[in-house]
Amino acid sequence: MTSRRSSRAKLIVSLSTAVTTFVALAPAAFGTPEHEDLAATPPMGWNSWNTFGCNITEQLIRETADAIVTSGMRDAGYRYVNIDDCWAEPERNAEGELESHHERFPSGIRALADYVHDKGLKLGIYTSAGTRTCANTMPGALGHEEVDARTFAEWGVDYLKYDNCNNQGIPATERYAAMGEALRATGRPIVYSVCEWGENAPWEWAPDVGAHLWRTTDDIKPTWDTGNADGYPMGVVNIIDANGKLADYAGPGDWNDPDMLEVGVHDVEGYPGLTDTEAVAHFSMWSIMAAPLIAGNDVRHMPENIQRILTNGEVIAVNQDALGRQGAPVRDDGDHEVWVKELADGSRAVALFNRGDEAATISTTAEEIGARPAPRYAVRDLWAHTWTVTDGEISAEVPSHGVTLLRVRPKR
């Protein structure tokens, strides 16, 4: 697979003035009442890029939709089937419109959307806020926002991932606002995913351009640690560090997006993939961070261990909690961290996170995690599916590169 970064024409622009100006003028129409519940919890779905890159066809998308249903992923909450780059013809038609690739998507996106909708799922699509997309295989939407948004709506698209390549140095707020307004004007509820790589602090302005989620980092790869605190490529632990600082910006309808899941993704660009322990940690931390859960594996050929991770209802419930809080660390002892997410029922989700190379005992207390004072607490291990009772001390032996994910509440 060709590296997405290798084809990027990145032009980073200072946006301090543009952000101030745009936010002041942001139209009240964003987040209209009829769509105010769109992405009320972090979106869940699947995206083609991490495993397939440009090697996509309509048959692959149909088979994936089928597998999302038969594997139990749909019933677990995964709804969006998202086509990433390379789905369109290299150039626009005579009317200036995008067309699906004639050989790989011969039936067209409308027919594919109908198929996906008939499965009880929703269809997502991709383009870039530039002249070309990141893989440089198809036109971007820069200067064509209205016609492309209208086309997507007519096709029945439910989700747009809007990338940042070939942007001609135009301020991000201008480019992403244009598409946000164009999507709103269609009247169709379309989840708007701003994929700006976190370069110009989109968490500060993306809600004002109509976005429901925004990338906070550069691209993830199926590995634990690339050594890059910022910049391409990033591993699971690198992204946790960056995204974990932004909890105050997340809430219902507005989500920090630390990129797609690498659970079950392997042998991509020289990366063998995560171990099972790392995959559990990855899924746990994305869940406690209230991140969108967008799977990237080949769900048609999903081993049982990966299926169990991706469909763990107790962990997903933490991610999808109606309060919409993003969890954050309350203690960092270097390799050992304690993360807490407040939940709607008053309980706390707690991640005991061991980023080190050796197993370790990690401990906390009911007081430290902000639990309501009580004589005793019920502690649920969300991976072992077991209960324990404590007077306030909470502790677990956590494997290297692992997470013990708990739910703690006063015992009735």
Question: Can you walk through the features of this model?
Answer:
It contains eleven helices and 16 strands. The chain folds into two domains: 5-319, TIM Barrel (Alpha-Beta Barrel), CATH 3.20.20; 328-410, Immunoglobulin-like (Sandwich). Strand 10 and strand 11 form a beta hairpin. The protein starts with 15 loop residues before the first helix and ends with a strand. Helix 9 runs parallel beside helix 11. The chain is 25% helix and 20% strand. The chain has 412 residues and is an alpha/beta fold. It comes from Saccharopolyspora thermophila. InterPro entries: Aldolase_TIM, GH, Glyco_hydro_27, Glyco_hydro_27/36_CS, Glyco_hydro_b, Melibiase_C.
Give a quick rundown of the structure.
The chain has 412 residues and is α/β, with parallel strands linked by helices. Helices cover 25% and strands 20% of the residues.
By CATH, the superfamily of the largest domain comes out as Aldolase class I
Rg of Cα set = 21 Å
Distance between the termini: 54 Å
Instruction: Please write the string of helix (H) and strand (E) elements.
Output: HEHHHEHEHEHEEHEHEHHEEEEEEEE
CATH architecture of the largest domain: Alpha-Beta Barrel
Mean of all residue-level pLDDT scores: 93
Structural class: alpha/beta
Overall CATH class of the largest domain: Alpha Beta
How many distinct domains?
2
- The CATH topology of the largest domain, please? TIM Barrel
Strand content: 15-25%
Helical content, roughly? Answer: 10-25%
Task: Tell me how many strands there are.
Answer: 16
Tally of separate helices: 11
